[in-house]
Amino acid sequence: MTAKAKTRQLVETIGELQYLLYAGADRSLLVVLQGPDASGKDGLIRHVFSGVNPQGVKVTSFGEPSKVEASHDFLWRVHLRTPAKGEIAVFNRSHYEGVLAERVRKLVSREIWAERYAVINSFESLLAESSTEILKFYLHISPEEQLERFRRRLADKSRHWKIEEADYDDRKLWLEYQTAAEEMLGRTSTKIAPWYVIPSDQKWFRNYAISRIILRSLRRMRLRTPEPQADIQKIKRKFHDEAEE
Amino acid sequence: MTAKAKTRQLVETIGELQYLLYAGADRSLLVVLQGPDASGKDGLIRHVFSGVNPQGVKVTSFGEPSKVEASHDFLWRVHLRTPAKGEIAVFNRSHYEGVLAERVRKLVSREIWAERYAVINSFESLLAESSTEILKFYLHISPEEQLERFRRRLADKSRHWKIEEADYDDRKLWLEYQTAAEEMLGRTSTKIAPWYVIPSDQKWFRNYAISRIILRSLRRMRLRTPEPQADIQKIKRKFHDEAEE
Questions:
Q1: Nearest chain B alpha carbon to A234
Q2: Which member of A62, A137, B81, B194 lies 3.0 to 4.6 Å from A93 by CB, making a disulfide possible if both were Cys?
Q3: pLDDT tens digits for A38-81?
Q4: B55 to A59: CB separation less than 8 angstroms, yes or no
């Protein structure tokens, strides 16, 4: 079987387990996606989470903070979007921008971002203790592949609307981003919330690898159809009474 | 072609237009689903919106209000979940519970619910003026079909967790619900936010009819790939400079 076909199978099984997660409503899953522009975060979401019932999946893209968001601490807007029990939440970018773009673009001082690793770890422990499984994926692409993808975007008029000059300019900061990413991975990969670095030059590999990890994590939850809340026998009796009327 | 296959095609096209809606980010779509228990609201969402990229679709199920929600007016929690520009929001039950279950179960007085039709119409005008297309579907099933579906749920252990005694007891109020639904349809079906009553005893028909209406509504928006925000020529020059380095 090809990797693509295998991924489709994995995604289908993810959909089935998501139904049990939703039904049980006592655990949740948080999927964090980080990676440079054009690393394929949007594509990954489209491939892995289309096909899962959107009733139990909430995707949030964290862009430029709004005025209200910026007037709070950096975790505030993120905390609002964490998954409720029974839900899968997907973060397209996340609180990790606080130690990546904000650091590299010098939007905050070293004193500020250097404190954030510990704050993030403590925040994620809190989520984990509240029955949230956390999976963090860093989509790694080479600068050459990024250039190639930018080239294809520039050649395709239907994709011009997605292009921002700042994304392109970030290429000059590639090494600084790499340093920031490495420190982030080292400081915030924990047992309860590990980082997975996913080689993402090949889209089929990216989709396959991430689907597998998500599925494994859902399988480990040993999700089962929940026990009935109602007194089924009593309702059955009512039902038979009505049928005989 | 069978209706099921046709529905799959419609859903695929809905997915394509949703991408343009998301890209353009200047319009939004609100889909409201109402109907008795077992009328198929969950199934409709699974069939029509799985397959659409969850990045642009937000589904909210409105159940029993939380303590905080109940301490606000009945539109407060609903307003929070209306679609942002570029999004599709799906309401599994909605503010209409305020003139259906709350009325029939006598949770609010007639003076309160009787005022709500005008308030709802004004609220929906506000959304429409803010570029939100509103489609409201009432999933109609016969009491016999509901009984049959309850019977199948009771016979299937894996679905016992979904059963609530109150749903069953609501059958005694079938006529009251019908009266409330008819008044709701008459008072709140407006040009900008029409109600569609969907015969839903047949699941394939329900899915097909609703997909068609949603697709027609998206088509009427005449969605186009948005104009680029960035100066593409300038970026192309930068790109060529880098390539030549």
A1: B165
A2: A62
A3: 999 999 999 999 889 999 999 999 999 999 999 999 999 999 99
A4: yes
Provide the pLDDT for residue B120. Answer: 98
Contact residues on chain B for A164, CB-CB shorter than 8 A? 229-230
Nearest to B232 by CA among A135, A95, A164, A145: A164
Domains, chain A, in order of start with CATH, read 3-143+175-244 (3.40.50.300)
User: DSSP assignment, residue B51?
Assistant: T
Kindly report, residue by residue over A1-12, the tens digit of the pLDDT: 899 999 999 999
**Higher pLDDT residue, A159 or B134?**
B134
Chain A: nearest CA to B108, how far in angstroms? 26
Residue B161: CA atoms inside 13 Å, Cβ hemisphere, count?
Answer: 12
> Taking CB atoms and an 8 Å cut-off, how many pairs form between chains A and B?
122
pLDDT greater than 60 at residue B245: no
A32 residue type, one letter = V
Handedness of CA A222, A225, A228, A229 (dihedral sign): positive
Q: Note the pLDDT tens digit of each residue in A201-214.
A: 999 999 999 999 99
A3-12: which pairs have CB atoms within 8 A and are 24 or more residues apart?
Answer: A3/A204, A3/A205, A3/A208, A4/A204, A4/A207, A4/A208, A6/A208, A7/A47, A7/A204, A7/A207, A7/A208, A7/A211, A10/A208, A10/A211, A10/A212, A10/A215, A11/A47, A11/A48, A11/A51, A11/A52, A11/A211, A12/A51
Indicate yes or no: pTM above 0.90: yes
Yes or no, beta carbons of B171 and A242 under 8 Å apart:
yes
Distance CA B75, CA A134 (A): 33
ipTM summary value: 0.86
Number of other residues whose CB lies within 10 A of the CB of residue A139: 22
Q: Which of A53, A226, A231 is opposite residue B46, by nearest beta carbon?
A: A53
